[in-house]
Design brief:
single chain, 690 residues, alpha/beta, Rossmann fold, Immunoglobulin-like, 5 domains, 9-stranded mixed beta sheet, 5-stranded parallel beta sheet, 24% helix
């Protein structure tokens, strides 16, 4: 409802003064005018009086105050758990019956001026279209989403309909929900006899020829002291089995040690035999997806003398299982391998020249080099050998410098928020001199002298060449790691930065004209598999309008064929509804008259969370209601729920907004004045006056 009031800044008597001014003006203008007869003069005088009075009134700056009232109804959100476990203990007729009752309650509430909305795991808004197929139950996320979406709105209550089985995310009883949550329990609280592979623990990466462990937890309800057979299958074939006596504690642990004999993505399945009397056999097996790779990337560190930084670098590099680290200090022998993927030249070349020849031999083989400078570095020899920096200075002269991040660096992703921690790190010892760049160099970190930021590079990378290179112009990395651990109890930020530099240096340049890959190696069975494809010409410029044929093959040899077109830059193509398993894909494209081919692998996984337990947890639902001052009902008590919702309904909220508008800005008043003046002018002209 709108209400308008005229606010006058002066006494109301001034309105009479405006009218009087208009009358006086018209009287002076027309009282002696004998050209028109009396009626016409009165008409013209009235028109002039109105015009002058309105203009005078506007000069007094009156204001129109408008108040608008909006009514907001209370809202009730029905949070419906539409996970797969909701169908395990009820048939479709029972489910249809309570969904129909819920629809009636919704209509009744809406008839009582209450806004009712539905929230599910998959954001379905229509009760009649709800499908109970979500593979996990994150009740905490469901409730917190509602709480956040209705912040600063007139939310009255949340009605949570669930079996209380929560298997992902934050436990709902620990959430801070601002409104009462009325929970409705559905399902069977009886503990059923059942065996389940509750969890499987394994390393996602293994190396060809090595052995690796797979550990399974077997959960039992009602089968204590029974003996069962637990098997390990690889791609469907049994590779190991054990006989296990089930413990009273309800969790039994089974260990397998597996030999990695086959390269690529391998699916291992831990399966426990099905016993008579089990409630379901769906949870008697769980998969472990392991990628077996052929060898690690080899990294060699060269140094003329021991230093704490060497141990720090070893700790950083060995965090990544895909790297093999070897340190060669002068006088300790020769490199173990003929070829390495990366050389770390720690203060090499140096003045003694003890391992300079080893470094030069690998440079000739185009092995990427990561130079780390320090007090012992031979600056002249370094400038000759490296492709990153020109450094003019005297060996042995050093500065203490702090690090600052180059905010414009974007060649690979860095977490700028985390890297703010570098400002708190102790100084590095850096050779003093004039720093100059060679071609295609990107600076990651700059040198700071005290609080003064310079443009001298502290960490710089050579980009755009096959034999990549990098320079860290200082020693003291070990102090950075100690300081970070002292501040955060972790070694994450410094380690992540240098691991990314090492990954950049050791990665091989992709020279293929056609590339296709999945955005992830693993997908859940309800997710879409996303492919990204790129095509290049001889100059490695991206091509458009390239037709691609994509073929997928599952473990059973079944093929899935698709076609799409690369439309520009990097094109994404999505595939959905694939059953779980390991898939190999092959794609071909005709590029400039030549057929190019690319291939790869990915995995579709089944979470299997919803089959781990069928026992409804009404205790969890009661806690949620108790913590939020709501109430708990069973699914057969929906009529009582309806009465409770209506009897505790919150009143409507009226939101008022006020608007002040100067009368002079109202357009129709302007047109009224123009109209009155025009009528007066027309009458005078029509009757022959000027």
């Amino acid at each position: 409802m709108d209400k308008s009031t005229l606010i006058f800044p002066y006494s109301a008597w001034w309105m009479l003064a405006c009218l009087l001014a208009g009358g006086v003006y018209a009287f002076v203008l027309y009282w002696r005018d004998t050209y028109f007869d009396k009626k016409i003069r009165y008409t013209l005088a009235i028109l002039r009086t109105l015009v002058v009075s309105i203009v005078a009134f506007l000069l007094l700056a009156p204001v129109l105050r408008s108040v608008r009232n909006n009514t907001e109804k209370p809202s009730v959100v029905i949070a419906l758990d539409n996970s797969q476990s909701m169908t395990l203990t009820q048939d479709s007729n029972q489910r249809k019956q309570w969904l129909t009752e819920l629809e009636k309650i919704k209509n009744k509430l809406e008839g009582e001026d209450i806004e009712v909305n539905l929230q599910t795991f998959d954001n379905e808004e229509n009760l009649k279209k709800v499908r109970f197929k979500t593979p996990s139950s994150d009740l905490g996320k469901l409730l917190s989403t509602i709480n956040n979406n209705y912040e600063n709105r007139h939310l009255d209550k949340i009605v949570l309909i669930s079996d209380g089985i929560h298997n992902q995310g934050v436990a709902p009883e620990f959430l801070n929900i601002n409104v009462p949550v009325y929970t409705v329990g559905l399902g069977d609280t009886t503990i059923r006899k059942d065996l389940a592979v509750q969890a499987v623990f394994f390393n996602k990466l293994a190396y060809l020829g090595n052995k690796f462990p797979i550990v399974a937890e077997i959960k039992n309800n009602g089968f204590e002291e029974r003996t069962v057979n637990v098997s390990l299958l690889q791609n469907g074939a049994t590779v190991a089995s054990q006989t296990v006596r089930l413990r009273k504690e309800d969790i039994s642990e089974v260990d397998f040690l597996v030999q990695a004999n086959q390269k690529g993505i391998q699916r291992y399945t831990v399966a426990v035999e099905v016993l008579e009397g089990e409630w379901t056999a769906q949870n008697n097996a769980r998969d472990a997806i392991v990628e077996v790779i052929d060898g690690k990337e080899k990294i060699l560190l060269l140094a003329s003398a021991p230093h704490p930084d060497i141990k720090a670098l070893r700790s950083i590099i060995e965090k990544n299982e895909n790297y093999s680290f070897e340190a060669l200090v002068a006088g300790t022998g020769q490199p173990k391998e003929e070829r390495y993927d990366l050389i770390i030249a720690y203060q090499v070349p140096d003045m003694s020249g003890a391992v300079n020849a080893v470094l030069e031999s690998f440079i000739k083989k185009d092995v990427p080099v990561f130079y780390i400078l320090g007090e012992s570095s031979d600056l002249n020899k370094f400038t000759q050998l490296n492709s990153v920096l020109n450094l003019k200075g005297r060996s042995g002269d050093i500065d203490e410098v702090f690090a600052s991040l180059n905010g414009t660096f974007s060649k690979f992703n860095l977490d700028t928020e985390k890297l703010r921690l570098l400002a708190k790190m102790p100084p590095l010892l850096v050779p003093y001199g004039d720093y100059g760049f060679k071609t295609s160099v990107e600076t990651v970190l700059y040198q700071n002298i005290g609080r003064l930021q310079t443009k001298k590079p502290l960490l710089a990378l050579l980009m755009g060449k096959a034999n990549k290179s990098a320079v860290l112009a200082g020693e003291g990395l070990w102090q950075w790691r100690l300081e970070e651990f002292d501040l955060t109890d972790r070694n994450d930020v410094v380690d992540e930065l240098f691991l990314k530099v090492i990954q950049f240096l050791s990665s091989k340049e992709d020279k293929r004209k056609f590339r296709i890959y999945t955005t992830n190696n693993e997908y859940l069975d309800f997710e879409r598999v996303v492919f990204e494809a790129e095509a290049y010409n001889e100059l490695y410029e991206k091509l458009s309008n390239v037709k691609v044929s994509l073929s997928l093959q599952d473990e059973k040899g079944k093929n899935y064929n698709y076609n799409f077109t690369i439309t520009g830059g990097t094109t994404k193509f999505e595939v959905s509804n694939l059953p779980k398993g390991i898939y190999k894909y092959t794609a071909t494209a005709d590029i400039l008259g030549k057929t190019e081919k690319a291939s790869g692998e990915f995995v579709i996984k089944d979470l299997q969370l919803e089959t781990l337990t069928s026992t409804a947890d009404f205790g969890l639902l009661r806690k949620v209601s108790q913590n939020t001052k709501g109430k708990f009902f069973k699914i057969n008590e929906l009529a009582q729920l309806e009465k409770e919702l209506l009897s505790t309904k919150k009143p409507n909220i009226i939101h008022s907004s006020e608007e002040l508008l100067e009368i002079i800005h109202i357009k129709w008043i302007f047109f009224l004045i123009v109209f009155l003046v025009s009528v007066e002018w027309f009458l005078r002209k029509f009757l022959g006056s000027y």
